[in-house]
Write a structure and sequence with these properties.
Elements lengths: L18 H10 L4 H8 L3 H10 L6 H22 L2
Helix pairs in contact: 2-3, 3-4
Length: 83
């Protein structure tokens, strides 16, 4: 009988843009989008776009600073998907 590969035997690489991974990393970054964007080595706006596209809620502090842009990205994504 061939040996079955177990999940833990495989080397798994998580997609950093996957919703669950992104949300967990945002938590690890203490819900600080600036810190998360540095960690991901990407522009702040791109990080906000990823969070908005995955509907990951911003912290109160991030909402105060970046909420307008975040919501505009969400609206754009919703309008784009409704066509």
């Amino acid at each position: 009988m061939p040996r079955r590969e177990h999940e833990r035997d495989r080397e798994s690489v998580a997609d950093p843009t996957d919703r669950r991974v992104l949300e967990r990393n945002y938590d690890y970054a203490q819900k600080n989008v600036r810190l998360l964007s540095m960690w991901y080595e990407c522009e702040l706006n791109r990080m906000l776009e990823l969070l908005a596209e995955h509907e990951i809620e911003l912290s109160r502090n991030d909402e105060r600073q970046f909420g307008t842009y975040y919501r505009s990205v969400q609206r754009h994504a919703n309008n784009y998907c409704s066509y």
